[in-house]
Amino acid sequence: MTRVDTMKSYVDAAVDYSKGKADTLIARMTRTSGSQIRFSQSMIDISNRWEDLSLDLFAVVEGSKTCSSERSVNSLQEVRQAVDDTISLAKRLPKSMLYNGVEESVHRYDELKGQFDDRLDDYAEKAPGVINAAIDAAMREGAKRCAGALKFAKRTVFLRSSQGPEGSARSTTFDFNIRAFQDELDYSGQGLHCGVRLSEAEKQLVEAGAQAGRLSKQAAGANQGEPGIYDLVLSPTVAANVLGFLPESANPFAVMIGMSPLGDKMGQPLAPELVTVHDDPRFPGGLNSRPFDVEGTPTQRTTIFDRGVLKSFLHNTTTAKLYETKSTGSSELVSLGEGLKMLLPASTNTVFDNGTTSLTEMLEGNRPTIHVTCNWYTRWQNYQTGEFSTIPRDAMFLIKGGRSKPIKNLRISDNILHMFASIMALGNDRKQVYWWEVDVPTFIPSVRIADCRMTAATQ
After folding, report:
1. Are residues 201 and 238 both part of a single domain?
2. SS3 206
3. 8 A C-beta contact, residue 442 and residue 240
4. Does this model's pTM top 0.85?
5. By three-state DSSP, how is residue 262 classified?
6. Is the dihedral of CA 69, 71, 73, 77 positive or negative?
């Protein structure tokens, strides 16, 4: 029996075994094989490969008692034990206050073209050479040393629900992060690149290294920045983390628990007309692109902001019934910290429409402007009102009177609704961003925003 046949037999066994024991059971089997290559001091020091076969279960018993589980399985006996354990725990839990059914219709799912790299299996041998080429590019641009990681994986998914839906999909993904340094750690730059077809991305990985090297050299000699009100130009990396929060907040569950500023904003203009944002689980090259959600509902593009106006939330079957609308195919088993997962709407790929302004044009003008290329440690003081802060990291530049100089030790301390409403221009350099500060893949260009508050990083 092939691995694919084994996966299908496991989800079939789980659903069949649950008959008479659970009102509903959804089984999703995921096989992931991947590699990670890490480097520091401009040398590769760790290379890991792994393979994992995991089973996600979502069970409903006694009408509205729900429970989910995730575990590695290697036999039919382990599959049945997982079903028994999940159902047993569900019976001991209280009735869910947020469950009103799952997808019941059977669908045909179109294959998403271009999401699988047939040459990925052979790339583990080639990858070290490409990483070294990226490091060399950074050093040629003036870096003293580099560190980072390349991670790539192949994923196959089988899904079956006792309500009827079933399907399968496969995909490949990769993400590359490189940081370049001068002799002082404050003088650093970052390069990122991610996508689904690593074997076609060698040029972009090398350019990410070159960008990190250039930025680190340009950051040399950075002085303490002066707190105040500035226009900001956010690189795609920063814009994805900061501005991406708002479309990800277009989620009924986030509204219900007080972690979204959008609860009473439907239909209101929250940004200039140049801003249109979608959640698109079918976007070509998206790391989270998929033909169906965890309930088996076909996925679709959902326009969240249309010409600046908030138009839609993401929904699964339950929240769609609560809001008297239709599911957007956005259901997922979402972890809320440690412990069990819940069946909730979730973002897939956040996609901002590309702009028309070049980065050079965005940095021009008479207003004091700060160009932020990277940020870490975003923290929210109030999710409902939108106050937050984040620390620019790596290269940051003050542009004033037509001249640019590196600065450091400032913090963006502002309000996300104010910043969204104050967008002045979108760049023509849209790219996909995904790394530890951006956990929802986000396609976004550079963004210029007016009148943002910068404070000293020590405050």
Report:
1. no
2. helix
3. yes
4. yes
5. coil
6. negative
